[in-house]
Amino acid sequence: ILNICWLIKINVRETIMTRINQRWLLNKRPEGMPEDDCWKWEEVDVPELKDGEILIKSLYLSIDPYMRGRMNDAMSYTGPVQIGDVMVGESAGIVIDSKSDNFKPDDYVCVHGGWQSYVAVRGDGPELFKADPDIVPLSTYLGTVGMPGRTAYFGLTRLGKPKEGETVVVSAASGAVGTVVGQIAKILNCRAVGIAGGDVKCSYVTDELGFDACIDYKGGNLEQDLKQACPDGIDVYFENVGGEVTKAVAKLLNPGSRVPICGFVSKYNSRDIMNEETPFDVFGTMRPKPKHRFFVVTEWFDHWADATKELSGWIKEGKIKYRETVTDGLINAPQALRDVLSGKNFGKQLVKVADE
Ligand code: NDP
User: Fold this and answer.
1) Is residue 116 within 8 Å of 86, Cβ to Cβ?
2) Which residue of 21, 43, 125, 205 has the smallest Cβ count within 10 Å?
3) In Å, what is the CA distance from 338 to each residue of 171, 344, 350?
4) Quick one: pLDDT at residue 79?
5) In this predicted model, what pLDDT tens digit does every residue of 40-61 receive, in sequence order?
6) Which residues form the pocket of ligand 1, taking CB atoms under 6 Å from any ligand atom?
7) CA of 296 to the centre of ligand 1 (A)
8) Nearest CA to ligand 1 atom 5
């Protein structure tokens, strides 16, 4: 009886209380590393739902390197966030109200709703997915079985096309994408070599994830160490970082090698990104050229569900392991992004927005 009274009390409180939506807006365009004044914190009422919409309470927010690019006033594969708009991002949360036939309260979902604690969206929106925390924990839908995991899966299998016995090298190897690339390479019976910053990250990549080797690019001996780790050269390089790492890898690429260019995070804070040397400059001037191209994970949008299923299967079988860095509180999202852009994160970077 006490429990029932308690539940009624909570429900009444929820319905009579006006919910407050906390959110981060883009305040100004950064130069270099984005400081706190690039964003503005705002608290507003949660909007009334219109027909066809659902209200999601955000529980986890994904923090990703691409967010830095969206803060610039420049077109990349998609447009910039406008000043005054909610900062872009995907979150995983729970439906708390629904005027859509597609979702009901207590459904778990992933949504591109930005840096805010409540998200109201149409229930038939294109990038709105159900998540099932009975299969893998909710946060994993933003990481290993979410966008980063799918990026690794499609970039490696569709463009890298590794064959058994080949050597696959991946940079940012201890991160959200890199961990999955190397572990899929092992599942496909390849030699997996990671590149990461520091001893601790490298030990994790070899000892816990089972890569064959991992090179600390901050160790001062990158070219020599990489050569030693890749005695038969490199057949597939999964590019995540650019810069000196790219140049060292380029020297070891075998004829016929493939280079899926996923990103080049070392340049994202550049004040003059148009004049930076990119992986395209490095690989495009090589003779023979490796087969290389930039890709966006949405190219395989129609097959996302297959990737989610296969990746969660591998997690269940213990073939794919992962790690998360969870920063507490939406208020700390700016620092979490700075951590990703400076390598302070270890594995998938998330922000815990609220308890269920
Ligand atoms: P990670 O979890 O790997 O975090 C970023 C990592 O980048 C850091 O932990 C750090 O690792 C490394 N890093 C940061 N600064 C530098 C630097 N100056 N030089 C070298 N390494 C640096 O992020 P994700 O896994 O989410 O993303 C990895 C890459 O994939 C990024 O380039 C991102 O833009 C790209 N991406 C592309 C997508 C696409 O569709 N094309 C989709 C998703 C991601 P360390 O400490 O080891 O240096």
Assistant:
1) yes
2) 43
3) 19, 8, 12
4) 87
5) 999 999 989 999 999 999 999 9
6) 64-66, 147-148, 151, 172, 174-178, 196-197, 201, 240-241, 243, 262-263, 265-266, 295-297, 340-343, 345
7) 14
8) 340
108-111 vs 348-352, strand pairing mode: unpaired
Q: What is the pTM of this model?
A: 0.95
Going along the chain, which residue ranges are E strands? 20-26, 39-45, 53-62, 91-98, 108-111, 118-122, 128-131, 167-171, 191-196, 213-216, 234-238, 253-261, 291-294, 324-328, 348-352
CA–CA separation, 271 and 72 (whole Å): 10
Q: How far, in Å, from the CA of 102 to the mean position of ligand 1? A: 35
- Residues across the chain: 356
d(CA 14, CA 356): 13
Residue 172 CA to ligand 1 center (angstroms) comes to 5
Separation CA 144–CA 179 (nearest Å): 9
Alpha-carbon span 151 to 262, nearest angstrom: 8
Tens of pLDDT, residue by residue over 293-306, are 999 999 999 999 99
Question: Going by CA atoms, what residue is nearest to atom 17 of ligand 1?
Answer: 266
